[in-house]
Amino acid sequence: MEPFPQNPQTSPVNQRRKWSTKEDVVLISAWLNTSKDAIVGTDQKAGAFWKRIVDYVNASPQLSGGVPREWSQCKQRWGRINEQVCKFVGCYEAAVREQASGQNENDVMKAAHDIFFNDIGIKFTLEHCWRELRFDQKWKSLGVPKEGPKEKRKEAAEVVAEEEGAEVRPPGVKACKAAKRKRQGYDEIHAMLAVKKEIQQQKLLERLLAKDPTHLTASEITLMEKLISEMI
């Protein structure tokens, strides 16, 4: 196994110094870029792989002026990030599945932290790392609840379709039949009301025609003429 490069500027004290949020983000970026490099990949020797990562971290303009890290520090820190983020992904997905109506993303995050603490026994302090990795295939979390209320899932799917410019799937056969039956019911009601109104008008006209024309009032004559014109 080839020897790992050592940085003479790094002392044992520096090796134990705390990692900042900015350093974590740069380390994650370095690991993702190096592991997905089509030429290098993760099949390269460990020494070369972590040398590329530590070089990426120490050359980052975001960490300019800081004390350089060694490969062993990057490897140890990455191991901790990977382990805890993987566990939190499971906690977050559990929180999403248990999401109640009316709860928002903040409620889900709080529930995920509570689940992590109850299951692991420590607080999850690497949320910034999870947010950097959550959409990568390995750590990808659920986008919408898989077992939440049906209406909530339906609304979420429709929003995604609209945002992506996708066509919304047309209603199924059952939905079409139900809508057709509903329309037919309305049509039948309207037809019945129309027939009932016509019968009432016929009876009224018959009563008016049965009267002596000389005894009809002006309003009755007007109504009779109107009814006759509508029925002709």
TrEMBL record:
<dbReference type="InterPro" id="IPR001005">
    <property type="entry name" value="SANT/Myb"/>
</dbReference>
<protein>
    <submittedName>
        <fullName>Glutathione S-transferase T3-like</fullName>
    </submittedName>
</protein>
<feature type="domain" description="Myb-like">
    <location>
        <begin position="11"/>
        <end position="82"/>
    </location>
</feature>
